[in-house]
Amino acid sequence: MNINVNRDGDKTLHAVGQTDECHPMFTDLPASVEINKLRKRLIRNTRQALDDFAMVRAGERWLVALSGGKDSYGLLALLLDLQWRGLLPVELLACNLDQGQPNFPKNVLPDYLEKIGVPHRIEYRDTYSIVTDKIAEGATYCSLCSRLRRGHLYRIAREEGCSALVLGHHREDILETFFMNLFHGGRLAAMPPKLMNDDGDVMVLRPLSYCAEADLAKFAEAMRFPIIPCDLCGSQDGLQRNATKAMLDDIERRMPGRKETMVRALANVRPSHLLDRTLFDFTGL
Partners of 63 in the beta sheet? Predict the structure, then answer.
């Protein structure tokens, strides 16, 4: 492994062919102890999720959803890293769905994916017009937008012969969903790391389930991903999810390590200590 100095004076890893220790995506990654530990931690957490939830079946083809945000870029990079090391025996196809949001920079993702040599598909579907027509002005577009996007991604997965749709949801996404369901939905539910779609033909995978959002943010900055903002539609202010995120961040500041504990709790359920009569036979007790 060679170490070069880039135009900004930072030391970087330099990959030379497939005999080197990293995918070409990592050629500009700073070679520091801190960044190396961060990368190893993210790889370790991703591998743990892949193993814990039996996500990998050798020879399959995965559709990796790429929005242009830090999480989906990080997902793609970590999967490519594992694949490069021979630890992920699947074929990866990156996919971006251009939904017609105003000022969406159409060239950023295809140019970047071409540069790093990643197979990809860019699909244009104007779901933005549908959402703005159906949702009242000033309301949040995210729920309907997400459902429309997911439907198209399932279709593309089928067309491309992919058995799985891989998403970049991380630890905080799972916790926020849990508390939103608790506070607003009256149910105990989160995002499962592995889920079969309703039609029973595409598996949904979330390999970043154990990865912290703060780690992914630092990783994205170090990797210098060409980030596309997620608020192009202008509907992000005042979301219930933002309030939930702020609550969890406040808890973590006051009691460090609580997020990790909460994630462990989601994998350590005691039905007899809850109130769901469909999960535990209270009558027969």
Answer: 93, 165
